[in-house]
Amino acid sequence: METWDGTPEELVLEVLNTTPTVDGTQRDLLSGEEGAALVRRWGGTGEGDRRNLVAARDAVQQIVTTGRTDVDLHALLDEVVQRPRLGTDGLTWRLDAPPAAVLALEFLATWTRLTTEHPGRLRRCANDECSRYLLDRSNANARQWCSMSSCGNRMKARRHHRRSAARG
Question: Which residues does the UniProt record annotate as the domain Zinc finger CGNR (predicted)?
Answer without folding.
Answer: 121-163
